[in-house]
Amino acid sequence: MIVGIDAGGTLVKVAYTENGSLNFMKYPIAEIGQVAVWVNGLSDAEICITGGKSGVLLSLLDKKAKEMVEFEATHLGVQFLLKRMKRNEQDYLLTNVGTGTSIHCIENNVQERVGGTGIGGGTLMGLSRLLTGVKDYEEMVALAQKGSRDRIDLKVKHIYEGKTPPISGELTASNFGNKIFEIADELTKEELLAAVIGLVGETVSTISVQAARHCRSSTIIYIGSSFLQNPLLKEVVESYTVLRGAVPLFLENGEYSGAVGAMSVLKEESI
Description:
Layout: E1 2-7, E2 11-18, E3 21-28, H1 32-40, E4 46-50, H2 54-60, E5 66-67, H3 70-84, E6 92-97, E7 101-107, E8 110-117, H4 121-132, H5 137-145, E9 154-155, H6 156-159, E10 172-174, H7 180-183, H8 189-214, E11 219-223, H9 231-243, E12 247-250, H10 257-267
Parallel strand pairs: 1-4, 4-5, 6-11, 11-12
Antiparallel strand pairs: 1-2, 2-3, 6-7, 7-8, 9-10
Helix pairs in contact: 1-2, 3-10, 4-8, 5-8, 8-9
């Protein structure tokens, strides 16, 4: 068995081969001990670990494992997953939306980190909890799907009411900026959660498009655990990326890119 593990700030993602097939698993970071028990129970396996919590996981293992830099592992995993999708992208911007967001320019299959933001999945979870009291991720996403941002976010067309704006009227002029003081007590959990996802999605896509222009690329590949079972975030990022003139691409199983990259280092030809 060949095992790649990406131990991140929120989730532990695992990619492994068994009987010639590629398999995926994920665990909350609080269950990293269970991941260690599973790995320690493997009788014959090659293991490579990456991610911010890789040192923690390594300390829990009673067998040898390789370790690699997260950015390079993610890049290799993206390349592999692109091939699985029969895509031949050579130059693109890569935006990894995990607990925070990391942005990389890929040119001639060489990656360079060009920036990032603290806005990401951690922001989504934290703000949602503070504003609504909802703790469960799946409940957050389900409620947000039913909500509208119309009463919370101020759009450009609202400012230029009665005349043609110089930029797209559908762009958000101010997240949480639309008469909030007047209606704060009326807002529902659904509206607030939708607005939080809108804030995260628009921030991520806006800085990604700006970075893509600097990188001279029109394609932005989005990956990360924040998109897991979160169609609204994906919808916001996709529509805002297009609205700002770039081409979004979401990888199948993209949240496992780091784990896949770590695994591919061990024996790519066996995957």
